Sequence to fold (211 residues):
Amino acid sequence: AVNWPWKPCSKQITALARLPLGIALSLPAMVVILALRDNAPPGRARHSGEALVKSEFSLVNHLGRRVTHKDFAGKWQLVFFGFTYCPDVCPTTLASMGQVIDSLGDAADKVVPLFITVDPQRDTSKALAEYVTAIHPNIIALTGTPEEIKAAAQSFRIYYAKVDKEDAPAGYLMNHSGFIYLMTPKGGYEAVFTEKSDPPAKIAAAIKQRL
Ligand code: NI
Fold:
């Protein structure tokens, strides 16, 4: 789906690329993120938005195993919400996350890249496995019941919504926030990036600085 502040970045599915940008705009999520950015000077400063975003979930990974945030305690998390049928933002963002992990070298084992679907109806563990293993072997994709996905999205303050679209696969798309969160080894908020404004090298440098 097309997500503020991005323009469609793929013309592969031209019908989808014509989606109006405005419908993807999530005012509540945007306000949270702008607050985070505005109040987040570089370094170790605490900021007001930090308490709003936390990593708490109970989901099923792409290998079909139940996992919670506690399974990732002690690791930094790089977290992105999306869906496998996304024509533009998700594939480019996940590719970028893969490049970030590669840029970390030996430190890559301290960072877990998580991809949480907002489309559990289609994104089963099996569908996610086929999708993410083709992008990067380290990415862990997570799905769950609609209620579990909703709870995870609320924990990260992620917006998503199903949008009917006649010529899309199965007749719908998912609009969703396009933020990449860096979460601390304790599951708290550390930083937020977007694929559009933060190239992989920049995200990797920001992570290395904190390891
Ligand atoms: Ni997407």
Q: What stands out?
A: The CA atoms of residues 52 and 157 lie 7 Å apart. The first strand starts at residue 58 and ends at 61.
